[in-house]
Design brief:
By secondary structure, this protein is an alpha+beta fold. The protein has helices at 9-60, 164-179; strands at 64-69, 74-80, 90-97, 102-109, 112-115, 122-126, 135-141, 146-151, 158-161. A hairpin with a 4-residue loop joins strand 1 (64-69) and strand 2. The longest helix has 52 residues, at 9-60.
Length: 180
């Protein structure tokens, strides 16, 4: 009589446990990479909005404004339909709504900070030559990863910073340069 060889119930359960552990490790790795991609996409979009602001100001030969609203999570490039008419007569050139996966949590313009929930939007003015005020944004994703972007007013150069203390230190240094 030939004996039929089959897997025991314990062997099958062991294989299932190993496969489920491998699947959970893979899922965690992939989700982390997807969240990093979301933050990177937002970084690229915000940099693009700043470049559009400066390009549009130079192209039109007029002052243009970037309105940043922390509460509605939007960045809007505005230009006046008539010179010096930013209160009533403005046209929206471009608008970026941040996705739900990320949050604009802090904004600095010339060193003055505003947190989410502080109300009212802040504006970055850009001259007809494409020169703007220096400003920085603190952006956070659902996993708690934070990105700080500092936009240099004169050059438009973008610097990524590790934390908000670096951003604040940079604005302190800029103030010292302006007062000396």
């Amino acid at each position: 009589m030939t004996r039929r060889r089959a897997f025991s119930m314990i062997e099958l359960l062991a294989v299932l446990v190993i496969l489920s552990l491998l699947g959970s490790f893979i899922a965690v790795s992939v989700s982390g990479a997807l969240h990093q991609r979301d933050l990177d996409d937002v970084r690229k979009s915000v940099i693009h909005i700043d470049r559009l602001l400066r390009w549009h100001a130079r192209d039109l030969g007029r002052e243009t404004v970037l309105e940043i609203d922390i509460d509605t999570q939007t960045l809007t490039v505005l230009w006046p339909t008539e010179p010096s008419a930013f209160r009533d007569e403005t046209a929206i050139v471009a608008q970026l709504h941040l996705p739900e996966e990320v949050e604009l949590e802090r904004l600095w313009i010339n060193g003055s900070a505003r947190d989410r929930g502080a109300g009212s939007a802040m504006r970055v003015r850009c001259t007809a030559e494409g020169l703007a005020e220096s400003y920085a944004l603190g952006i956070k994703d659902m996993n708690g990863m934070t990105l700080h972007l500092l936009f240099a007013g004169l050059t438009g150069e973008v610097v990524e910073m590790e934390d908000e203390h670096e951003v604040e230190a940079m604005f302190v240094a800029l103030r010292r340069l302006h007062t000396d």
